[in-house]
């Protein structure tokens, strides 16, 4: 079976292995938040506001006396959930659009013009506009980010579909009269999994950064939801007196996004024959 062998090759690279371990730790903390951080992330204690890191509060407290460690661990659930839903939605919609545009010549031009129009806007500006239209909420942030990153996936899938469509085995099954839906599902889509997997890892990282950016600008999820972005946004005015209120959620964002990018680079290098041959 190829998958175990590919995983072994991927983990052979030290930087990829470290990135995978960092992501595993973050995922375990997020899934086991009630056990790893038993304190309520929204419990306030005004007398303990802006306390530095100590044995009682491993990462200090924020401006309302809330435990930063508990907020970061519990906030990982929301930040990772937003990023995962964004990656999933973008890949599903983008793959569908890319397959339709790459396989059906009549649909290619109109679909790609819409994709080009959406990609002409900077990601963060388009996300801000969409959230402003939909309204600030967790669901609307996910919908906005899905719409922002769908064109990126559609472009990649369409380009790969144009290549696979012309291969001899696809021509053979078409000549045999196999249904178009079966050709797309059984013969073309499996050959697109490599670029799709790479896009998943990249969009996951982009979504974490985008959510933090939207929250920092005040148009993301409501401040009562403890995502890493809302923590940085809500505590920025206290950073000169208590650096930890911005430092720790910022490091969580940086380490997660960087690990995802490095893991995505490793997957791309492993699955791209040209890069593998050059190495």
TrEMBL record:
It is found in: Cell membrane. Belongs to the binding-protein-dependent transport system permease family. CDD domains: TM_PBP2. PROSITE patterns: ABC_TM1 (PS50928). InterPro entries: BP-dependent_transpt_permease (IPR050366), MetI-like (IPR000515), MetI-like_sf (IPR035906), OppC_N (IPR025966). The chain crosses the membrane at residues 78-104, 124-150, 196-221, 241-264. Pfam families: BPD_transp_1 (PF00528), OppC_N (PF12911). Its main location: membrane. Signal peptide: none annotated. Keywords: Cell membrane, Membrane, Transmembrane, Transmembrane helix, Transport. The keyword Membrane applies. The lineage of its organism: Bacteria, Pseudomonadati, Pseudomonadota, Betaproteobacteria, Burkholderiales. Residues 76-264 form the ABC transmembrane type-1 domain. The keyword Transport applies. This is Peptide/nickel transport system permease protein. It is a multi-pass membrane protein. Coiled coil: none annotated. It comes from Variovorax soli.
């Amino acid at each position: 079976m190829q998958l175990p062998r590919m995983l072994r090759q991927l983990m052979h690279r030290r930087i990829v292995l470290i990135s995978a371990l960092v992501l595993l730790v973050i995922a375990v903390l997020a899934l086991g938040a009630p056990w790893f951080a038993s304190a309520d992330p929204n419990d306030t204690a005004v007398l303990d506001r802006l306390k530095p890191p100590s044995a009682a509060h491993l990462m200090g407290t924020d401006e309302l006396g809330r435990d930063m460690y508990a907020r970061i661990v519990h906030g990982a659930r929301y930040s990772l959930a937003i990023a995962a839903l964004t990656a999933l939605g973008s890949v599903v919609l983008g793959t569908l659009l890319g397959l339709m545009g790459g396989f059906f010549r009549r649909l290619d031009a109109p679909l790609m013009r819409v994709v080009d129009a959406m990609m002409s806007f900077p990601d963060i500006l388009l996300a801000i506009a969409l959230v402003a239209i939909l309204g600030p909420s967790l669901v609307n942030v996910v919908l906005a980010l899905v719409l922002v990153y769908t064109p990126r996936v559609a472009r990649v899938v369409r380009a790969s579909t144009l290549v696979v469509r012309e291969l001899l085995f696809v021509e053979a099954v078409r000549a045999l009269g196999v249904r178009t839906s079966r050709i797309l599902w059984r013969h073309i889509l499996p050959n697109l999994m490599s670029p799709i997997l790479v896009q998943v890892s990249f969009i996951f990282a982009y979504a974490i950064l985008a959510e933090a950016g939207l929250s920092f600008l005040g148009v993301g999820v409501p401040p009562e939801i403890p995502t890493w972005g809302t923590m940085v946004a809500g505590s920025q005015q206290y950073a000169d007196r208590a650096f930890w209120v911005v430092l720790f959620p910022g490091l969580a964002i940086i380490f997660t996004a960087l690990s995802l990018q490095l893991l995505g680079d490793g997957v791309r290098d492993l699955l791209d024959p040209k890069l593998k041959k050059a190495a």
